[in-house]
Amino acid sequence: MLDIYVWFYTGCILTVLGSIGTVMGPGVKDPIVRTLNTEIAAVGVSMIFLTYNHTIAMLTFVASTVIITMILLRAVVRLEEMGAKV
Amino acid sequence: MALLDFINISTISAAVSLIGAIGIILLPKPVDKVIMFALLQGGFIGMIVAAKYLDVAMAAALLDPISTVILLIAIIKINDVRRKKLRSQEELNIA
């Protein structure tokens, strides 16, 4: 019974901490740092899914996080190559 | 021994993932962040194992290193692009 609370509270802490870190963490002017900070919030949301036994949702969320990371980083590198001011 | 009651797989996983999260937020260099990200995902997989969803743990353990590899490739590439841009700017200044 205690385990469920540990998962849920860790998930909540990671989600809030990751969101605040994405908005105003150290060095977030660099887009690659900001993209890395969003991963914390993604893992936190996955932990909340785990608390409610939503395994299929969690699996889909982890897989789509990987794919969206790939696309976002590709876009960031491409924009940096073009020298765009975003 | 009340303290030993807290040593189980989900408490240790929670501690590891919290350390990873704080490390990702506070360390400024991207490569250090990727190392701390591996720590965060290790805690996450430990937590799935504590819930006894071993098939989900297998899938997550296969998907997480893909994310790490993509991040490393992007960091190397963006470093390369920035250095090349700096060099071309210096050549422009000399000429």
Structure description:
Chain A has one domain (2-82). In chain A, 84% of the residues lie in helices and 0% in strands. Chain A has helices spanning 2-24, 31-51, 55-82. In chain A, α1 (2-24) runs antiparallel to α2. The termini of chain A are far apart. Chain B is mostly helical and 95 residues long. Chain B has one domain. Chain B contains 3 helices and no strands. At the A-B interface, α1, α2 and α3 of A face α1, α2 and α3 of B.
Please outline what is shown here.
The complex is a heterodimer of chains A (86) and B (95). Helix content of chain A is 84%, strand content 0%. Chain A has 3 helices and no strands.
Secondary structure layout plus pairing:
The complex is a heterodimer of chains A (86) and B (95).
Chain A: H1 2-24, H2 31-51, H3 55-82
Helix pairs in contact in A: 1-2, 2-3
Chain B: H1 9-26, H2 30-50, H3 54-94
The major beta sheet of chain A can be summarized as: none
Number of helices of chain A: 3
Coarse morphology of chain A: elongated
Q: Which secondary-structure class do the elements of chain A indicate?
A: mainly alpha
**Count of folded domains of chain B:** 1
Oligomer: heterodimer
Biggest β-sheet strands, sense, barrel of chain B? none
What is the 3D shape of chain B?
A: elongated
Instruction: Report how far apart the termini of chain A are.
Output: 48 Å
Report the count of strand segments of chain A: 0
| Mean pLDDT, all residues of chain A | 90
- Structural class call of chain B reads mainly alpha
Helix segment count of chain B?
3
Radius of gyration of chain A: 15 Å
Estimate what percentage of residues of chain B fall within beta strands.
under 5%
Number of strands of chain B: 0
Helix fraction of chain A? over 70%
The number of domains of chain A is 1
Order of helices and strands of chain A: HHH
